[in-house]
């Protein structure tokens, strides 16, 4: 049992390091632009390049490493991430910075997918949801603490300093993973097994559910700061406090959803997406009063990352003995959903309807909810025990 906890903790640390990198540069764009002689808009493409690397590179890396021993692969992916962070920290030009971000992004989806698969492999099948949420909590802590602290460090010591620290943390994570991860034989699955699994209709529907359902959150959260300042009337300082509370709620919601997923994956995923649709449709009306706006932000935080455990569990349920590519594709689907939701919200904001972005978010979450009935049809009570995601 102690070895299990150590394995989950080490994977969580790795996820924290990788997760911090994704949005870290967003708070450093003015400094990056000034130092590398590009506009802030151009510097922002470093975020886009990373996201594209996650969506495209993750599945490619998963395919190429399908039969690599899992422990060695985890260490290799973390070293690849460290290399990308080091390139970013030392980048003499904007083009080299983009190259460093791209290198780091290639390890992102593949490492997250591997961490989730390994986590479910060290616990009994009935604890898969808890294991997924435990490892995924590294990502919520990255959002809650890693990104803000990295931004503060960048403000104090320059934008390169956070990337240097990330490099050191990645190397420390390599040492930790080397010490505690169990050695397992290389997977017996072949590349065509992984490809066959990811092209199954239930798996494709589950990936679509992730992308569409999660895009509803992004449609609103991307623009939550201007919504709270312009519509609700909060100060910038108050918004920072609310975002911290949002992050704390996300951390708690992810852990609770993991336990609920162990009881019933279908009820959890539908309950979360239904709850998201409810809070998002109320957001335009809650935002006009500060007390109700606070309540809406807190509930949104609780539900936003509560999607991770049941949606990844849904993938694992359908993926059988060849889950790595499917889980990696689903990690990319979260990023794709975030990008799509941001784009939808951006169109609404550009049209001068900032307050009403929640309605579009609710529609997207409802579409994700509808997809769950195709990806996970209702089952007779006699087959209900199969609702537990399969361990691999």
Q: Sketch the major β-sheet.
A: none
Radius of gyration: 20 Å
The N- to C-terminal Cα distance equals: 18 Å
The tally of helices reads 17
* Basic shape: globular
The helix/strand series, from N terminus to C terminus, equals HHHHHHHHHHHHHHHHH
Structural class comes to mainly alpha
| Count of beta strands | 0
- Taking pLDDT < 50 over at least 5 consecutive residues as the criterion, the unreliable ranges are 379-392
The oligomeric state of the chains shown is: single chain
Percent in strands: under 5%
Helix content: over 70%
The overall average pLDDT, rounded, is 85
Outline the structure in words.
The radius of gyration is 20 Å and the shape is globular. The chain contains 17 helices and no strands. With 392 residues, the chain is mainly α. The two termini are 18 Å apart. Helix 5 packs antiparallel against helix 8 and helix 9 crosses helix 16.
């Amino acid at each position: 049992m102690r070895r299990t906890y150590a394995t989950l903790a080490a994977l969580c640390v790795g996820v924290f390091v990788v997760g911090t990198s994704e949005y870290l540069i967003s708070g450093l764009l003015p400094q990056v632009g000034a130092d590398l002689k590009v506009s802030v808009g151009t510097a922002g493409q470093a975020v886009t390049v990373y996201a594209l690397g996650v969506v495209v590179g993750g599945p490619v890396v998963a395919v190429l490493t399908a039969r690599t021993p899992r422990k060695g692969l985890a260490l290799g992916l973390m070293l690849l991430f460290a290399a990308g962070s080091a390139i970013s920290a030392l980048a003499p030009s904007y083009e080299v910075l983009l190259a460093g971000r791209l290198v780091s992004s290639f390890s992102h989806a593949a490492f997250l997918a591997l961490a989730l698969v390994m986590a479910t492999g060290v616990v009994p099948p009935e604890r898969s949801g808890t294991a997924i949420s435990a490892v995924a909590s590294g990502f919520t802590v990255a959002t809650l603490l890693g990104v803000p602290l990295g931004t503060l460090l960048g403000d104090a010591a320059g934008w390169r300093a956070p990337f240097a620290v990330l490099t050191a943390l990645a190397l420390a994570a390599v040492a930790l993973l080397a010490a505690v991860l169990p050695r397992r034989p290389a997977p017996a699955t072949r590349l065509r097994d992984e490809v066959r699994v990811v092209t199954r209709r239930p798996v494709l529907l589950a990936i679509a559910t992730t992308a569409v359902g999660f895009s509803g959150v992004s449609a609103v959260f991307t623009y939550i700061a201007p919504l709270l300042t312009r519509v609700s009337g909060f100060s910038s300082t108050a918004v920072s406090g609310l975002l911290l509370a949002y992050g704390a709620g996300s951390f708690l919601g992810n852990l609770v959803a993991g336990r609920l997923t162990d009881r019933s994956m279908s009820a959890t995923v539908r309950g979360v997406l239904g709850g998201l649709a409810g809070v998002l449709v109320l957001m335009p009306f809650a935002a006009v009063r500060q007390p109700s706006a606070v309540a809406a932000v807190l509930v949104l935080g609780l539900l936003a990352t509560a999607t991770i455990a049941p949606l990844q569990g849904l993938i694992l349920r359908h993926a059988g003995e060849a889950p790595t590519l499917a889980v990696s594709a689903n990690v990319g689907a979260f990023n794709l959903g975030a990008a799509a939701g941001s784009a939808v919200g951006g169109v609404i904001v550009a049209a001068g309807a900032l307050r009403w972005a929640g309605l579009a978010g609710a529609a997207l979450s409802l579409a994700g909810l509808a997809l769950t009935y195709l990806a996970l049809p209702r089952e007779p009570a006699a087959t209900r025990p199969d609702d537990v995601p399969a361990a691999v």
